[in-house]
Amino acid sequence: MDIDANVGGTDRLLRALGAMLLSIVAVRALVAGQRSKGLLAGIGAVGLGFNATTCFCGLNAALGIDTNEE
């Protein structure tokens, strides 16, 4: 399976920053005993981190959006 990169430049940087922010939110929520909030923030962090690392976003592919060549 060949995956074409469709995330790049500023979009990739913002996704990485969003993943870091959501990771902090997830850890703080879990420490405070808010499991649902921590789980949702953790899932969001993993998703954004995956997008930033692989330069691929399934939603962008489905919508025909390509920010790889900004």
From TrEMBL:
The chain crosses the membrane at residues 12-31, 38-63. InterPro entries: YgaP-like_TM. Residues 5-69 form the Inner membrane protein YgaP-like transmembrane domain. Keywords: Membrane, Transmembrane, Transmembrane helix. It holds the Pfam family YgaP-like_TM. The keyword Transmembrane helix applies. It comes from the Archaea. This is DUF2892 domain-containing protein. It comes from Halonotius pteroides. The lineage of its organism: Archaea, Methanobacteriati, Methanobacteriota, Stenosarchaea group, Halobacteria.
